[in-house]
Amino acid sequence: MALDIKICGLKTDQAMAAALAGGASHVGFIFFAKSPRYVEPVEAGRLRQAARGKAKAVAVTVDASDAFLAEIVERMQPDMLQLHGSETPQRVAELKARHGLPVMKALPLSEAADLERIKPFIGVADRFLFDAKPPKGSELPGGNGVVFDWRILAGLDAGVDYMLSGGLNAANIGDALRLASPPGIDISSGVESGPGVKDPALIEQFFRAVRAARDNRAA
After folding, report:
1. Rounded to whole angstroms, how far apart are CA atoms 12 and 200?
2. Which of 3, 7, 49, 140 gets the most CB atoms within 10 Å of its CB?
3. Cβ distance 63 to 85 under 8 Å?
4. Closest C-alpha to 76, from 59, 97, 90
5. Where are the alpha helices (DSSP H) in the chain?
């Protein structure tokens, strides 16, 4: 089974190059002003040119206004929208129809009961991103480097398409793949040398760890 890999929160040409060289299927750009990974729509539009024909460019927003979303879509020309706020199924459907783009809905998880939150979005969102719930006091809905219990994903219906996120790094990706067998993975802080600073060497190391983990499982 092919494994989708999204490197999220990209801001530099060097990080983009490392993500694409490693074989990323998706590259993400953050449009949330409080995040150290925030990038202007025009700059994201410039950076995403390198991904054309190689990886899908994802615009990550958090309860963004209609006007800001329209600006992002116009200037970045994303392949997909990722909604990482408190958007309702109705909002997801509305934005899909308005922009003609697939939508990935992020939902925070910490226990098996949280999987119930997925149900209203099934058939509306094109994909899910499962992240850990942010720690108390954090202003960021994602990118906090926090892990949740991946074993709860065993209770998912087989048809639910998702990306696993939250605290992934080169050291734990093998366990994540073994315990959850996700169709996709998303990493941000786990390939950074500091908040919002993507490290090409850490990106390369992460891809090596993913390949090693998959080779071990195939052996």
Report:
1. 10
2. 7
3. yes
4. 59
5. 13-22, 41-47, 66-76, 89-99, 173-180, 200-218
Report how far residue 127's alpha carbon sits from residue 122's, in angstroms, rounded to the nearest whole number: 9
End-to-end CA distance of the chain: 15
Span 65-74, pLDDT tens digits: 999 999 999 9
Q: What is the DSSP letter of 42?
A: H
In whole angstroms, how far apart are CA 16 and each of 11, 34, 42, 184? Answer: 8, 22, 16, 19
> Does the structure show a pLDDT above 80 at 1?
no
Closest by CA to 28, choosing from 92, 91, 67, 72, is 72
17-49 residue pLDDT tens: 999 999 999 999 999 999 999 999 999 999 999
Single-letter amino acid code for the residue at 171: A
Say whether 107 sits in a helix, a strand or coil.
strand
